[in-house]
Amino acid sequence: MKNRLKSFASVSLLAFVFACGSQPAAEAQNPPRSTAGFAPTNLTGLAMATFAGGCFWAQEEAFEQIKGVKQVVSGYAGGTKANPTYEEVADKTTGHTETVQIYYDPKIISYQKLADIFFTASHDPTQLNRQGNDVGPEYRSAAFYRTPEEKKILEATIARVNASKEYPGKIVTEVVPFQKFWPAEDYHQGYYRLHPENPYITHVSAAKVEHVQKAFRKDLKNPL
């Protein structure tokens, strides 16, 4: 527990210096967006999991590291406006939160394992409407379930983690039914790998990804 808390504390401190969402000026003026993000074209045999845990750059890369995960798409969910832009979500006018949609092979990795990663390693689920210095409802923690079984898994995982005292506070993650996922602009997709020099990536996102790598070493596509 102490290592986990120390890791999240370091990320939170660094987040006060950098913020998620910066992009090249040209992209900001005319952000391209495909109709489905970078989702797999063939969904046969794949299932989907949808989680929100702060800046989607780190969440996307962290889950991309896991065996059985085919693809992760950054986007927005939990709000009311159709096809929102990053700027609209950041302005807190849509109700959406930065979200990742995970396409995975349930024969290789379970929904339970993804939930374990989400609640214990990829972010701090006890922070309300924020992750570090990324503050606002667009950074709130949320888990979107598609079936009654997924809801049970999420609620049971929260109860188990709370009982374990892994965090000093209680988990505040919203557990809500999945309705619609809107892919983010193309420049957000794969941002972690495409912009390793970005200060937010090097000082904030990298620590979150490394935390998942260490906590779930046996589940990595390429074990450390």
From TrEMBL:
<feature type="domain" description="Peptide methionine sulphoxide reductase MsrA">
    <location>
        <begin position="49"/>
        <end position="200"/>
    </location>
</feature>
<feature type="signal peptide">
    <location>
        <begin position="1"/>
        <end position="28"/>
    </location>
</feature>
<keyword id="KW-0560">Oxidoreductase</keyword>
<dbReference type="Pfam" id="PF01625">
    <property type="entry name" value="PMSR"/>
</dbReference>
<comment type="function">
    <text>Has an important function as a repair enzyme for proteins that have been inactivated by oxidation. Catalyzes the reversible oxidation-reduction of methionine sulfoxide in proteins to methionine.</text>
</comment>
<keyword id="KW-0732">Signal</keyword>
<protein>
    <recommendedName>
        <fullName>Peptide methionine sulfoxide reductase MsrA</fullName>
        <ecNumber>1.8.4.11</ecNumber>
    </recommendedName>
</protein>
<comment type="similarity">
    <text>Belongs to the MsrA Met sulfoxide reductase family.</text>
</comment>
<dbReference type="GO" id="GO:0008113">
    <property type="term" value="F:peptide-methionine (S)-S-oxide reductase activity"/>
</dbReference>
<dbReference type="InterPro" id="IPR036509">
    <property type="entry name" value="Met_Sox_Rdtase_MsrA_sf"/>
</dbReference>
<feature type="active site">
    <location>
        <position position="55"/>
    </location>
</feature>
<dbReference type="InterPro" id="IPR002569">
    <property type="entry name" value="Met_Sox_Rdtase_MsrA_dom"/>
</dbReference>
